[in-house]
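A favour, since you know our structure tokens better than I do. Could you add the entry underneath, on a fresh line?
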Amino acid sequence: MPHTTAVWFLHDGDGEVKLWLSDARQKMKNLMARPACSLFILDTANPARYLALRGHAELVADPDCEVGDRVGAKYDTDVRKMLREGETRYAVIIRPFQVLVR
């Protein structure tokens, strides 16, 4: 079944969307098993507007928090405080093959 949760994301203008996820989470386990994914972004100023992406996720270990720090900066948060002993954090790079704008 699809697994839907709220996630922080980063778009660098390079056509890719990046997430920063822990391998301890179910979402990451699902992506490891099946890298097909979607991302739904709602315009909070106008809930009738949204962006929906479908794509394939590439999972890249991010031990130095390179992507994590950039995602955290977007949301004004020190993501290193989220690190837990024994988990691995991954940069999830989504390469969309379908984009829907409403």
